[in-house]
Amino acid sequence: MAFGDVKTPKGLQELDAFLAECSYIEGYAPSKADLSVFEAIGKAPAGSVPHVQRWYRHIASFPVQERSAWGGQALPQVAGAKPTTAPAADDDDDVDLFASEDEEESAEAERIKAERVAAYTAKKSKKPALIAKSSVLLDVKPWDDETDMAVMEKNVRSIEMEGLLWGASKLVPVGYGIKKLQIMCVIEDDLVSIDLLSEKIEAFEDVVQSVDVAAFNKI
Asked: CB under 8 Å to 58, separation ≥6 — which residues?
C-alpha cells in the first residue's frame, strides 16, 4: 500500500495522502482492509490529517457487528492488530464522539441563526415608522354675503400646527349671494385633532360662522 505504519505520525500523513484520492483502503466499499487499518489506528486521530479523520469517523459510524461481516482481506502489515470487540463502554465513547460533533454543529447553527435574527431586527428598526395621515376637506361658512372671504382664507391658513399642511381651496356658492370657503388640508392623525382645528378656525368669529367636515379620507 502507499502508506506505512499508521501508528506513527509519518504513517498517518501517508495514509492521509492516500485517502485524499480514495474513499476506502481497497475498492469502492468498506472491507476488512479498512477494518484492519481502523483497528491499527485504535482511536480517532489528531493532527492535520483531515482525510484520515473523515475516513475514521465514517468507519466508526458502522456497528461492530456490521464491520465484522465485511468482505475482503485484512492488510498484511496490520493483520496483527487487536480485533475490534469493543465493550459497551467503548461504543458509548463512539456515540459521545459523534454527539459532541452534533452539539458543536448545533451550537454553530444556533449562533448563525441568532446573528441573522439580530441583523434582521437591526435592519427593521432602521426603517422609518409608518405615519398615519388623512386628507380632510373643510367647509368654512361666513356670516353673510358681506364677509371678506379673502380675509377669512388668510385667517384660516394662518393656523399652524405640527402635522398640518394646508392645500387647495375654492369658494362655493351656497345661496343668496353667500359663498363658503372649501379648503383642503392633510393632517397627521396622531398630531392633529379635527375638533381642535375646527375650534381654532371658529375662533375667528368676526368672519367665521361655522366649520363642517365635508370629506375625510385616510391616506
From this structure: 30
The pLDDT tens digits for 121-134 are 887 777 666 789 99
Task: Write out the three cell numbers for 120.
Answer: 434582521
Alpha carbon distance 187, 135 (integer Å): 7
CA atoms of 109 and 102, how far apart (whole Å): 10
- pTM for the full predicted model: 0.43
φ, ψ of residue 170 in degrees (nearest 5): -160, 160
User: What span, in angstroms and rounded, lies between the C-alpha atoms of 126 and 100?
Assistant: 39
End-to-end CA distance of the chain: 80
At 66, give phi and psi (nearest 5°).
-70, -40
Q: What is the pLDDT of residues 43-102, one digit of tens each?
A: 888 888 999 999 999 999 999 999 989 988 888 766 444 444 444 444 444 444 454 556
Q: Which are the contacts of 82, defined by CB distance < 8 A and separation ≥ 6? A: 39
